[in-house]
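Sequence in, structure out.
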Amino acid sequence: MSVKSIARCKSRRWRLLGIVLGLVLAVGAGIAAVPRGLAGEKGPAAKQDGPAAKQDGPAAKDLFDGKTLAGWQAPKMVGQGKIYVKDGALVMEPGELMTAVVWTGKPPRTNYELSLDGMRLEGSDFFCTTTFPVGESFCSLVVGGWGGTVVGLSSVDHYDASENSTSSSREFKDKTWYRVSIRVSDARIDAWIDGKQVVRQERKDHKFDLRMECDPCRPLGICTWNTKGAVKNIRLRELSAKEVAAVAKEKSETE
């Protein structure tokens, strides 16, 4: 083989090596650019909580330690299912109809924000319906009720979440975490699921109360209906005076 032939062979080998190296670098860059959320359905872990970006008040308080039922108890009601902690979540097994867990602390009556992650493990109805104070009364945010899709407040002016103006419908997948946030201010009740606002209900001239089934969940509780559900990252935060004023101003500007 001549000197020129040897040189041409070496040149081709170097060009091939350069192409292979370029492909390796390109693939590596592509892998590094894949968002972590695409590795699986992580629900709220990959999303920004609705009101979280606007927080300007005191830090949130963790109501559940992810290890024990400290601060939580099962209400006294017929047909209550088993509640326990597993893998950092508070699990509610199906009861005869409803299973609930109630916080033993004293929640504020207004101007606060409550958030949690909820997941339906088995069943076809609500899996983390949350009861909370609204002034001197109480209300519930239904998540996945009436066959698994209804979202809304129960009750507003004596109409439940399937009948009043807060009612909406969405699909919930099993074994998927959803971030639920509820904000009660002097002006409104707001709620978000995975950062999307699902409730915006003015308080003035409206009456809030509970369906009879949710009475045992007062003052702050979470329940399921013929469904196995789990919750975690339960947090409560009082709103600052600035936040309360901002909500009131927003309300007056839209009237």
